[in-house]
Design brief:
The complex is a heterodimer of chains A (about 300) and B (about 325). By secondary structure, chain A is mainly α. Chain A is built from 13 helices and no strands. Chain A has a single domain, classed as MetI-like (MetI-like fold), CATH 1.10.3720. Chain A is elongated, with a radius of gyration of 24 Å. By secondary structure, chain B is mainly alpha-helical. Chain B is globular and about 85 Å long. The interface between A and B is large, with 47 and 51 residues.
Chain lengths: ~300, ~325
């Protein structure tokens, strides 16, 4: 931003400098434009999402069609570009279709936790006092579990299934989101302009709607996108343990689990689903980092 | 400082109680009658009635909780009907095996993380920094169960130089410091160390970068102190952060090793959890989770106290 204003002050008169001075969002946009790495990973993510949505048009074969003659064909077999799995199903097809459940199970817990945890954190931060104490102390208890352990505990007790996996991961992500929301809300609530709004007679709900949410949303959103990366790994991990999706549904973690038995027959086909998990999780992390530095957010 | 430490220790009590409530609740979120979770379906009627009495399923929930807690405090988590062993026996051997992996993972993770992070922090913006940062992000983004599988494919399947699974000859009963057992450690420990390397690298880099901008560094430089001397000052200031981050990582490794233990068939707590999940052995599940969560709570406590001892300014309420 500083280079921008010195450049313009050379060529332009003072009046124009003021109108040229970029708003926050336009500076965020220009930061992002100058960050090819973030853009690249955002594009990868977009293509992963689109290929999952349009799997019916993109996938060359039927994801459920087994073919005993083609079992465990290596990568590059004719008609099976990325090989075939232990039941002779086309890997490329299943990797494309697998994105549907993997992304759904990875993203939806964070979205759900964003609503619930966000609401809890907002309430705790805005009301303060005893309400804050009781909400945050309960969150502390959940914090006492390492996240993988908590996910496995709840999933293990609830039993296998997509919905159960999503519930358990939602519970895992509520406390961290609540904690971040609470700390940002508490900071903003103490600012002078919120005090001014209160003094001029604004109702609490108006203050939350107009002043608090608009300032809290950014950091919490960025933080949540970085959680999606963890969530993708964990949800596929639950499926890998047999706690998420059930066969024959295509899902990356489950595919990794079933192909694990045949690593001595066809090792590299077994590694493919993990590449997809890695790529998705890496893309979310890189994008989150990029947006965070573009928005100049420190958590 | 003493007051802070006492306060911090007292704070463990409500947290531990909360944790136990959640774990107790697991039986009740399990589908079906909680009784089914602790009694095998083919148990004779007298056994069922005996167990109803023993677990207090005929009493109200808070009473049930207190009975369960009382037993758990004595180390009695019930009997795993799947294996017939008492849960506490199974856990004791499992915890040791998991600790072997976790300690190995955290040692490599801390050493590598500090090294890479310090290099990146010192040479900010250089290619070293970019490489290290990229490596760290990859480390925290990689699904470690997949990484384990890839390492097995490379070193066991393709190159055939390292064992793919288990703890080595004699299994978990006769573990010793020898080459054969060491070889079995290599792949799982490396797999586990990747996440801590990533996380520790990131925080060491950020900490060092922040310290280097502080005024006392300028003062030290101005008075002509040698680079190596300045480094000791930087290291001393970075120590509490590194300690906190890697201390907590031990806890995450203990909890997170289940996936890695599954990949390597390592007979630790993760393996027990897996067993518990498949046989729907809820007492075993509760026992393992309770022990691991308590480890984590105590670890948090130790980290906080150690931090306040190293740096008394941290005595926040």
């Amino acid at each position: 931003m500083s280079t921008l204003s010195t450049n313009s002050s050379k060529n332009l008169d003072a009046g124009q400098i003021i109108t040229d001075s970029p708003s926050y969002w336009s500076s965020v946009r220009s930061n992002l434009r100058n960050d090819p790495v973030t853009i690249a990973f955002a594009l990868i993510l977009l293509s992963l999402l689109l290929s999952a949505i349009f799997a019916d048009f993109l996938a060359p074969l039927d994801p459920y069609k087994t073919n005993m003659l083609k079992r465990l064909k290596p990568i590059g077999t004719e008609g099976f570009l990325l090989g075939a799995d232990e039941l002779g199903r086309d890997m490329l097809t299943r990797l494309i279709y697998g994105g549907r459940l993997s992304l759904l199970m990875g993203i939806s817990p964070v979205v759900a936790a964003l609503f619930i945890g966000g609401l809890l954190g907002l309430t705790a931060g805005f009301v303060g006092g005893k309400v804050n104490m009781s909400i945050m102390r309960v969150m502390d208890v959940f914090y006492a579990f390492p996240s993988v352990l908590l996910a496995i505990a709840i999933s293990g007790a609830l039993g296998a299934g997509i919905f159960n996996a999503i519930i358990s991961l939602t519970i895992v992500f509520i406390p961290p989101i609540a904690r971040v929301t609470e700390s940002v809300t508490t900071q903003i609530r103490a600012l002078d302009y919120v005090e001014a709004a209160r003094a001029s007679g604004a109702k609490s709900l108006t203050i939350i709607r107009v002043h608090i949410i608009s300032n809290v949303a950014g950091p919490v959103f960025v933080y949540s996108t970085s959680l999606i990366s963890v969530s993708i790994i964990l949800s596929s991990g639950l499926s890998f343990l047999g706690l998420g999706t059930e066969p024959p549904q295509p899902e990356w973690g489950l595919m990794l689990n079933t192909l694990r038995q045949s690593i001595y027959v066809n090792p590299w086909v077994a590694a493919l689903p993990g590449v997809m998990i890695f790529l998705t999780s890496l893309s979310f992390n890189m994008m989150s980092d990029g947006i965070r530095s573009a928005m100049d957010i420190k958590l | 400082m003493v007051a802070y430490i006492i306060r911090r220790i007292l704070y463990v009590i409500p947290i531990a109680l909360g944790v136990s409530v959640i774990i107790f609740g697991l039986v009740h979120i399990a589908p079906g009658d909680p009784l089914n979770a602790v009694v095998p379906p083919d148990a004779p009627k007298e056994t069922v009635e005996l167990l109803i009495k023993a677990y207090g399923f005929d009493k109200p929930l808070p009473v049930q909780y207190l009975i369960w807690l009382g037993k758990a405090l004595e180390g009695d988590f019930g009997i795993s009907y799947a294996t017939g062993r008492t849960v506490s026996d199974a856990i004791a051997s499992g915890v040791v095996n998991t600790l072997i992996l976790a300690v190995g993972g955290i040692l490599i993770g801390t050493i590598m993380g500090c090294l890479i992070g310090a290099l990146a922090g010192y040479f900010q913006g250089s290619w070293v920094d970019k490489l290290a940062t990229g490596f760290a992000i990859a480390g925290v983004s990689v699904p470690h169960y997949w990484l384990g599988l890839v390492l097995v494919i490379i070193f066991s399947v393709e190159l055939n130089v390292l064992p793919a699974m288990g703890m080595g000859p004699g299994g978990s009963t006769s573990w010793a410091w020898n080459l054969e057992h060491f070889k079995h450690l290599i792949l799982p420990v490396i797999t586990l160390s990747v996440i801590p390397i990533g996380i520790i690298t990131r925080s060491v880099r950020a900490t060092i970068a922040e310290i280097l901008t502080m005024e006392f560094i300028q003062t030290l430089e101005a008075k002509g102190l040698r680079k190596s001397h300045i480094f000791t000052h930087v290291a001393k200031n970075a120590a509490p952060t590194v300690l906190a981050v890697s201390g907590l990582q031990v806890g995450y490794l203990l909890g997170g090793s289940i996936l890695v233990e599954t990949v390597f068939s390592w007979p630790g707590t993760g393996f027990l959890l897996n067993d518990a999940i498949f046989r729907r052995d809820i007492p075993l599940l509760q026992g393992v989770i309770l022990v691991l969560a308590m480890f984590f709570v105590v670890l948090n406590l130790i980290v906080d106290i150690a931090q306040s001892v190293i740096d008394p300014r941290m005595n926040r309420s």
